[in-house]
Structures are given as C-alpha cells and as structure tokens.
Design brief:
Blueprint lengths: L1 H13 L5 H15 L23 H18 L4
C-alpha cells in the first residue's frame, strides 16, 4: 500500500510538473497591471475580471504545453 503512494510522490518531489496555478496568477497580475489595478492576492477577495486564465497568451500556453510534454515524457518508465 505505502509503496504505491511512494511511487506517486517520487515523481512529483524529484521532478515537479509545470505549475499551472503560477501561470494563471502571472497572467492575472499582468492583466491587472495593464488596466491600472493592483492585483488582489486573496482568491476569495479577487475581482472576477482579474482571473488570469482568459489572459494567458498563446505563446504562454505553447510553452506550458511543451514543459508538460517534457515532464510527462521524463516520468514514463524506460522501455
């Protein structure tokens, strides 16, 4: 039982996946700055239009997708 848990944790501790939350927050901060607002750190108090997901650029998505593909490939056991 513990061995399966160890296997799952091993991949994320030694080689964490790309951080989607960081990407969303970075886009939200950038958008807030572009409209002259201060970004609200607390997600429960944040204004809805400061949500970063719709403000992620195509280039940022492409970079995230490349990083995720590389991470997934590195996690696969050798054949």
């Amino acid at each position: 039982m513990g061995r399966g848990l160890q296997t799952v944790r091993h991949g994320t501790e030694d080689n964490p996946p790309p951080d989607l939350q960081e990407l969303v927050e970075r886009a939200g901060r950038r958008y807030a700055a572009s409209i002259g607002e201060e970004y609200v750190e607390d997600p429960f108090k944040r204004l809805p239009h400061q949500g970063g997901y719709p403000h992620i650029t195509a280039e940022e998505w492409a970079e995230y997708d490349r990083a995720m593909a590389a991470w997934q490939a590195a996690r696969r056991p050798p054949r």
